[in-house]
Amino acid sequence: MDDDLVAMVEYSDSARVEWYLNEYMSQKSALEAVNEIPWVTGNTATHSALWLVRNLVLTSSHGDRSNVPDVVILITDGGTSDVGMATNEAKLLHSSGTNVIAIGVGLNVDPTELDSYKSSRSFHVVSYGMLTSITRQVVQALCI
Predict the structure, then answer these.
(1) Is 121 helix (H, G, I), strand (E, B) or coil?
(2) What is the 3-state secondary structure (H, E, C) of 55-104?
(3) The model scores a pTM over 0.90
(4) Rounded distance, CA 118 to CA 48, Å?
(5) pLDDT tens digits, one per residue of 79-123
(6) Is position 55 within any domain?
(7) How sure is the predictor about 144, in pLDDT bands with cuts at 50, 70 and 90?
(8) CA pair distance 117, 53, nearest whole angstrom
(9) Which of 47, 96, 112, 117 ranks highest by number of CB atoms within 10 Å?
């Protein structure tokens, strides 16, 4: 992770930035921060999360580097509250050159909706515990 920067946006009824690209500069500190993210329940405001990524996270003031490709990994466990707005936000990210990889978790994921977010690949697993089973494929998609 020496050259990679990671940000985290959590979303349910609304979205919030857990941390920006320039906050954790080591793999160890980023992994520790993941364990501190509170589990929230509610609706799925995917559009809000993608808007935050596009307008606040992927900015030079928060660590974005113009000479490095941007990749967003979107993880969702169900249908968003506004598919049209979420798809539009994803397309705005695509048009800016951001590679969006979409991952659906669980039985409530609509494959068509999931594919509307991706720019390169989408994946689907039946549970969060199964995310590790697609690690290799996600890493390969990151390198496209």
Answers:
(1) coil
(2) HHHCCHHHCCCCCCCCEEEEEECCCCCCHHHHHHHHHHHHHCCCEEEEEE
(3) yes
(4) 16
(5) 888 999 999 999 999 999 999 999 999 998 999 999 999 998 999
(6) yes
(7) low
(8) 13
(9) 117
